[in-house]
Amino acid sequence: MISASRSSKRGVRSFRTKLLVAMMLVVSGLMAFALYFAQRHVTAAAQHDLQQDFQAELSSLDKVQELRNAALVERCGALASRPRIHAALEDNALDLLYPSAKDELRDLMEDEGSQHSGPSLHAKFYRFLNAAGAVMSPPNPKNIGQLSPSAETQLILKKLPETQQIGYIRESADATDETVDEVVGVPIFSTETGDVISALVVGFEPFELIGKGAGSGTKSGIWLDGQLHMPSLSKSAQAALGSEIAKAVTNSASAQSNFTVTVNGAPQLLFYKRLNPNSLFPPAYEICVYPLADSMAQLHRLRWRIGGAGALLLLGGFVASHVVAARLAVPVEKLELDSEKNRAQRKRAETALASTSEKLKRSTRYSADASHQLKSPVTVLRAGLEGLLTRDDFKPEIYEELSALLHHTHRLTGVIDDLLLLSRMDAGHLQIDSQPVNLSQIIEEWLDDLGALPDSPEVKIEKKVPPDLCIAGERRYTSLIVQNLLENARKYNRPDGLIRVSAARNSGEVVLTIGNSGHPIARDAQEHVFERFHRGGTGSHISGHGLGLNLARELARLHNGDLRLVRSQDDWTEFEARFLIAAPTCGAAQTP
Amino acid sequence: MMRRLARFNVVVALFPISVLGQVTVEGRVELPESHSAPVVAKRYEIVTHGGVLSTQPPLAVVYLAGSFQKPTSHPRKQIAQKDLTFVPSLLPVQVGTRVEFPNLDDTYHSIFSYSSAKRFDLGRYRPEERPIPSEVFDTPGLVILRCDIHEHMRGLILVLDTPYFVVTDAEGRFRLRGLPTGHYTLNAWIDSKTTHERPVELKKGETLQVDFR
User: What are phi and psi of B95, to 5 degrees?
Assistant: First the structure.
């Protein structure tokens, strides 16, 4: 019992563990799901935000640049159409070109001083290109903005532009200080021929895309001709980024895109956009590098939050599972206990059954033994009595006495036979060798014998049995059943009584009914008539030993049939025996 | 007859040419076709077509090229600015001529030229500017006049090393009177890139018919 309760507790614990594991699995799955989606969402949102930022910056830049370019174009266009410049170019007075321009472009070149708030229209330098696209060298570069020879070569175009061109040039004052200037190239059309005879190229300081206020680590620069100009980065970082951008720019046909890079070990989102599409000048790209640290931190926070929520959920789940397991365990435990009780009961019953069966076996063996032990002396006794009857030197009374004794030994033999049969049945040793048996014939034979029996009262016999009723069974035992019933019907009849025998087929069975007139069996004895050694309260003047009906019923049941008392009242007692119909019909008449 | 001619030659040598000019050359210059519809009010403008400056409607300048004495005093000529154009738009002058540029508009003008024959810049001046801004043109060649304020304005001054020149009429007809006798080249300036030449022998009292076509 103790080990059982222990095992039941173990079972409950394992159930609880399983429940907990299942809950943990569900919670972890949910968490993983949530984390995955949160990460995706945050990353996408961050990229989207930054992209929008960049687009907003760019569009504002575009607007400002558009404004500035419009202003510049108008200004440069106006300048380019100045009669003096045209006169210098058209009237073959190139020596007067720069001097005239100096006057005409004076306001463009003059520093507006403190007005640094808006986008500056202040030019750093200007140059004219000749018909071949080469720079016309100025007589006095000081007035028109100094340029290094390398910078000046960057102004050279393959041909003169028909439209306004935006370009960028790299100007390095010394090894460390490098600047990028934006240049606007405006064609100058001849008023005489309408051809482009020259171009005015004006250099400006480029825009700072990211305002000075945006100190969140965002960097902007210009990528030009394979190199990145981003002063906030180290030279090596610029070179590394520059080559990455070069790869992206050459691989992608689109004028703008973005990708993730690592700068100084930190992930950054890099945007690029062509600044001068369709320009004759080398392509230049606006580069913006946004640190992803913020979004990473946000992601980190979110991860922690989700992790915390998951842990809480898990904790809650743990507690809940404990509670649920405990509550669920109650009926389980009860069930366990109940089944324990059942087991004990069954065991007891089994033990009882075993002992009963043992007792039964013993008693069966005993009765069998006893029958065997009795049989030999009775046989000896009968043989002795029969031997004595053959002598002729006794008095007649002695013969009578001997005859009576012999009759009793016959009865004793019958009882012993019955007991032996019953004990075999009880031991389960009796096997029915089932064959088709002609019941009609058996009845006929026993009815014949009935008349031959001694001291039988005069009774009338009514028989209603169809010929060749075939049942499944072993002939000697079915015969015994019929004999027992008929003998009882005669024995317990009254003088001038009646025995009615009828048999009929009834849906797979043969029903044999044997009724007799005479004193009925007492009502309270009726239920005991099939018990052994029960004589039905009949007078002792009737021979019998109280085994016949019991034996008959046991045999009938062994034949998968039955025997029952139909009624016993008003001078009429009737028994009914049922047998299974044999499949084939019975052949020729058999003798018992 | 021959003697008379010889005597005349002596006279020519002794007298100033202007006085002695007896020869007349007349004829017609075939002008390029007008690119614009004929206008009633003849206003001649300088137009450029394919980089060539000419007047519109076309006019030509016929002049006698040769070695002539420069004038001792500066003859004065005028090119006015009127209705934002130069009037006349084409002015042939002899080397050493002072050309005045009166402003007849009620706005500023700023006449200048970057032409190699004469570079000058009169600066902005009002109509009332006195003395009238002027320049002496002492190098032969074509001077393109521009206004710094009105970029479309063009004027041409053809500075010639000769006192004998005339502007044709709209049909290209011309007549040069009082020319000296001798062998010369008669030129017809049609536009900035085109000048026709004809060698002529001018004889006293003769009227020579020269057609440029």
Answer: -50, 135
Q: For B151, which of A81, A91, A193 is closest by C-beta distance?
A: A81
Question: End-to-end alpha-carbon separation of chain A, Å?
Answer: 61
pLDDT of residue B10: 41
The span from the CA of B89 to the CA of B156, in Å, is 6
What residues in A contact B147, CB-CB < 8 Å? 83
Which B positions 78-137 lie with beta carbon below 8 A of chain A? 112-116, 119
* ipTM of the complex as predicted: 0.76
Contacts of B50 in chain A (CB under 8 A): 192-193
Nearest CA-CA partner of A460 in A542, A513, A518: A518
Q: Strand B165-167's sheet: what is its strand order?
A: B165-167, B61-65, B182-191, B194-202
Range of the domain at A468: 431-580
Shared domain check, B187 and B153: no
Of B170 and A10, more confident: B170
What is the pLDDT confidence band of residue A111, given thresholds at 50, 70 and 90?
low
Q: Which residues of A touch B156 (CB under 8 A)?
A: none
Domain, as residue range, for B130: 69-161
Tokens of A245: 């951008």
User: Is pTM beyond 0.80 here?
Assistant: no
Contact flag B112-A192 (C-beta cutoff 8 Å): no
| pLDDT of A575 | 93
Same domain, B104 and B134: yes
CB pairs under 8 A between A and B: 44
The per-residue pLDDT for B21 is 55
In three-state secondary structure terms, A112 is coil
**Nearest residue, CB atoms, B144 vs list A81, A91, A96:** A91
Of the listed ranges A82-86, A389-393, B52-56, the one predicted with least confidence: B52-56
Contact B114 A82 (CB under 8 A): no
DSSP A115: -
In chain A, the number of structural domains is: 2
Res. B19: pLDDT tops 50: no
Q: Which residues of A touch B (CB under 8 A)?
A: 81-84, 86-88, 91-93, 96, 190-193
B144 touching A (Cβ < 8 Å): yes
Q: pLDDT at residue A81 above 90?
A: no
Q: Residue A283, preceding bond cis, omega within 30 degrees?
A: no
Which of A294, A311, A328 is a domain's end point? Answer: A294
